[in-house]
Amino acid sequence: PITSQPGHTVDLDMVLKAMREQLNIEDVQSWGCALIFDCCVEDGNEATAERREKAAARGAIEQVLAAMQLHFGEELQEHGCSALWALSRHSVPNRVAMLKQNAVAVSVRALTDHLEAPFVQLWACALVSELVRDGPEPRASAMQLGATGRILQALQSHTEEVQVQGFGLTALSRLSR
Asked: In DSSP terms, which residues pair with 3 in a beta bridge?
């Protein structure tokens, strides 16, 4: 098993197996994405990078994207974007893999479909900000898909949500480079 942060153990292989076997059950997919986030979110030690790479090697990116493309509920989109964000942090190979699998389009769709949901907006903006950081091609793709306009809508719709504002502005800054 891949252990998550100290004091928590997540058997990521079991989570991914459950997600694969129960792809049509949205709650299984949503909570699986939440567990992937817990396993891969930065906790300030070197083990995080190792967990992130192991999760990606076992198919976590593909599984999260499959869930997000099959189910469109708010909770799943929130957990899916947050899981992909955690997998993408400090990992160029994971970001490249996500870009090849249309993660930008998935994140822009989450922004579009759940404008009134602050946590979806937060994590979708965070994900876009990570996906576009490595060069002009991802930025051009995101802009072509309408990411700039969707992020501006998120900022205007959630003026009191500090994290939406922070991640939204970070994404806009990276898109404008």
From this structure: 9
pLDDT at 175: 97
CA 55 from chain centre, in angstroms, equals: 14
Span 125-154, pLDDT tens digits: 999 999 999 999 999 999 999 999 999 999
DSSP 2-66: EE-STT-EE-HHHHHHHHHHTTT-HHHHHHHHHHHHHHHS--SSHHHHHHHHHHHHTTHHHHHHH
- Angle subtended at Cα 115 by Cα 113 and Cα 121, rounded to the nearest 5 degrees: 100
In the 8-state DSSP scheme, what is residue 86?
Answer: H
Report yes or no: 16 and 32 within 8 Å, Cβ to Cβ: yes
Is the Cα torsion angle 115, 119, 124, 129 positive or negative in sign? positive
Distance in angstroms (rounded) separating the CA atoms of residues 162 and 142: 23
Assigned token pair, 91 = 């990992």
Single pTM value for the model: 0.94
Q: Is the distance from CB of 42 to CB of 52 less than 8 angstroms?
A: no
